[in-house]
């Protein structure tokens, strides 16, 4: 299965500001996120990201699988695509394969992306670089020791100030 990350970053690699307000994200990032989620029909996110998006802004509504990582065994959702899980990243990939998915997109946040990167389970990375710099905030990844090499597949200008970088992760030997 192909697993991609799709995330908005600042010009200095942050994914959130210290105010934790998403007023720096372009409509084009939102459209791109929606499009890839609709295309892949399998979306992975952490519970903190879920809490920000639910109930009205979850990218899948009826069809597909929205995997939400959480240790909260009581978590419930009205959205029929949502599966709350404590599984690790490789077990999640296995679960999605068993459900018939061939592609999945990880949409955040830092903890969730870091887990999949650490497990070597990310094939593609889409970085939507917004024209801002935050002196403090949340980095793209945390507690990731390995070094990954990437191949640039595409650079797309989304508007006057926003670019989308599409990378393929080189397989580690
Ligand atoms: N720029 C972007 O494109 C973008 C996209 C998405 C999010 N964000 C930002 O990212 C921030 C959230 O990122 P984050 O790193 O704090 O949180 P996150 O990855 O969204 O969620 C973390 C939570 O997921 C659960 N979790 C993670 N790994 C788990 C595992 N292996 N097993 C069980 N549960 C697991 C835990 O929830 P429990 O405590 O419930 O167990 C944990 O507290 C927000 O500020 C948001 O605005 C930015």
From TrEMBL:
This is Dihydrofolate reductase. InterPro entries: DHFR-like_dom_sf, RibDG_C, Riboflavin_Biosynth_HTPR. Pfam families: RibD_C. Residues 6-161 form the Bacterial bifunctional deaminase-reductase C-terminal domain.
